[in-house]
Amino acid sequence: MLVVGNGARAAGASELIYEFIKKTHIPVLATMNTVDMIQDEYRIGFIGTYGNRVANMMLNECDLVISVGARLGLRQIGHKKELFAPKAKLIRCDVDQYELARAIKEDEEDYNMDAKAFMEQLIVENIPDYIEWWNNCMKSKELLDDYDDTEGNKLMKKISRLLPENPIVAVDIGQTVCWAAQSLSFKGTKGRIIIGGSYGAMGIGLPYAIGSSISRGNGITYCITGDGGLQMNIQELETVRREKLPIKILVVNNKELGKISEIQHGSYNDRYCITTAESGYTVPDFVKVANAYGIKAAEISSYEKLDEYKEWLMDDEPCLLNIMLTPGTLLIPKIKWESCTIKPDLDEEMLKKVNALIGV
């Protein structure tokens, strides 16, 4: 497996990585911040705590991991380093010597160098064509594509089908960023998912969308945010209106602070505190708020009805679509912190099918 992080993009290695896939058919997995880097028919998914099940399963079965520009932090490797890619030799390329000083495997092979220079050297090596392995991995992906679908994942897939080629999408922090990273896929290979990573807290979605639109000459930009995230910076609707920015705001509204309430559910025995309607959390009427700012808006009772507003997603005006989601929708799959196992468990029949393809 090739694992790519944001350092690979920063070094300008994106096109080389596509070239590498086409030449070797070695599958490429991403970190969450780089999940948009490999798109179209080459997309498999990202690794780590909320990563795509198939990506984490491939990582567990492969015999070699080449990590390029990925820091491989706790969200990717878990707190038991020995369980990260347990059957694989690890080769790491990172421009930051201090990241490499934090060894993950005792026998890892480290290269303290620029990611693009590393890929330029790697691609001229005499590497076999792993087309059979590639085909098995892609068949596994097909098998598991709909396996972990929650309502949040289904919404992201619906959005994916409605977006134009190579869109720019800013995503807010919370459940939305995990669902988007798992299930938002683009037509074309040059679209961008702008994710806060460690640089932005909840509420960053709309400001990121504003910056992205202005940086592209007031171009169309999509903002996927939660009801909690939008309330953090809701005053920026005035900036959108004043600057006439064609930002399409898609509010994933489950009337909860979903990520926090999920932790309170799973780790604190349902002791909710101002995260759900019953525990004191409330949301405004976003349609009326948007209209007050002079922005057209509509409420959608289900993600299935998003098609009715396809034209809104393509015109040159800002808009807000308040998409209702069932409260209590959880993020799955998730790697259990204390055991490094993927929850919920894969059913036995499906496990046999996947293992037949990628099991070593």
CATH class of the largest domain: Alpha Beta
Shape: globular
* SSE series: EHHEHEHEHEHHHEHEHEHHEHHEEEEH
- Full CATH superfamily name of the largest domain: Thiamin diphosphate (ThDP)-binding fold, Pyr/PP domains
CATH topology term of the largest domain: Rossmann fold
CA radius of gyration is 21 Å
Known CATH architecture of the largest domain:
3-Layer(aba) Sandwich
Beta-strand segment tally: 13
Catalogue the unreliable spans.
Answer: none
**What fraction of residues sit in β-strands?**
15-25%
- The percent of residues in helical segments reads 25-40%
Q: Which structural class should the secondary elements be placed in?
A: alpha/beta
Sheet with the most strands, sense and barrel status: 6 strands, parallel
Taking all residues together, what is the mean pLDDT? 94
Number of helical elements? 15
What is the count of structural domains? 2
Strand order of the largest sheet: 7-6-8-9-11-10
User: What is the CA-CA span between the terminal residues?
Assistant: 14 Å
Describe this structure in words.
It is a single chain. By secondary structure, the chain is an alpha/beta fold. It folds into two domains: 2-144, Rossmann fold, CATH 3.40.50.1220; 151-331, Rossmann fold (3-Layer(aba) Sandwich), CATH 3.40.50. Helices cover 36% and strands 15% of the residues. It contains 15 helices and 13 strands. The strands form three sheets. The chain has a six-stranded parallel β-sheet, sandwiched between helices. Strands 2-1-3-4-5 form a five-stranded parallel β-sheet. A two-stranded antiparallel ribbon has the order 12-13. Helix 5 (97-100) links the parallel strand 4 (89-93) and strand 5. The protein starts with a strand and ends with a helix. The mean pLDDT is 94.
